[in-house]
């Protein structure tokens, strides 16, 4: 594999431009973690002498570990007298920008932005330090226009953003059907329409798109509007598992504050364990945090099927990230990615061992 990763212009543009204009306070909006309910315990100490640890995540159910961890106070409890501060993002590139600038220290993010951020910095900006979620991505379509997978040809299908995780997956699926699409323009045997998840349901209702390859809860929002699930992306992967959300950290923060990183990873693992043991309560907690962050909770007809399709796991499913990078290369969005060293699972495996859990693998892409 070549020593220097080179990105095509199209993928670089994705890294530079967020889909939406974010809230005025920096790169994202500060989330209220309900400080009255999550007071620091008496006698708690600051970790690594830090006043705060800045954590980023998306207001998506695929970031359920972060949503539940914030809502139930797991992160603040683990950090003791060091304040957990939160920012909510709408797009991966803006979160990478925030990580690079020091506006956040640790973040929950999808695989494509993590790959892009790592390769653009020649492997110097971030590390993936843990997993969070698998699944939760579906191809949903207008059943009056599309009844079979073959019917997708010639139709207009939305993805969230040029070069994002779902966009890459859909372009790869199109190629596997033997169809041709220009990755940058989205024109070809299928029209790939890059549409922000927040407006995709309206685009569907207006007839601007015939379907969408999207994460939850957008997929279930479309189903509530009459769309049908034509394909669950999990069915395309071995064991029906693929990474949809990772945990990343800036390399500088990882080097200087490993105890703080360990505290966050411990809280994440405890959150995932609680989610899997208490799925209904966890679903309610995630929805409550969505309401806190955005002002609006999800209705049951959207929340229930969406939550059911996501698996929460500490395993970063590293081999699937490598495959997703290969898909981006095949789509013409990424050239010669050197992913060696993108993972550092040392602290996570230490946390898992201490909890009596099995360790996880970096698929040969870990630090030496």
Itemize the secondary structure elements and their pairings.
Layout: H1 9-16, E1 29-30, E2 52-58, H2 64-71, H3 74-79, E3 83-89, H4 92-101, E4 106-109, H5 111-120, E5 126-135, E6 137-141, E7 156-159, H6 165-176, E8 191-194, H7 200-206, E9 211-215, H8 218-224, E10 228-232, E11 243-250, H9 251-256, H10 258-277, H11 279-294, H12 300-308, E12 310-312, H13 318-330, H14 346-354
Parallel strand pairs: 2-3, 2-4, 7-8, 7-9
Antiparallel strand pairs: 1-3, 4-11, 5-11, 5-12, 6-9, 6-10
Strand-residue proportion: 15-25%
User: What is the mean pLDDT?
Assistant: 89
Radius of gyration: 20 Å
Order of helices and strands: HEEHHEHEHEEEHEHEHEEHHHHEHH
Shape category: globular
What's the tally of helices?
14
Q: What low-confidence regions span 5 or more consecutive residues with pLDDT below 50?
A: 1-37
Q: End-to-end span in angstroms? A: 17 Å
Share of helix among residues? 25-40%
Order of strands in the sheet with the most strands?
1-3-2-4-11-5-12
Task: Write a brief caption for the model.
The chain is of the alpha/beta class and 368 residues long.
Question: Mind explaining what this structure looks like?
Answer:
With about 375 residues, the protein is of the alpha/beta class. The protein contains 14 helices and twelve strands. Helix 6 links the parallel strand 7 and strand 8. Helix 6 crosses helix 13. The chain is globular, with a radius of gyration of 20 Å. The N terminus is likely disordered.
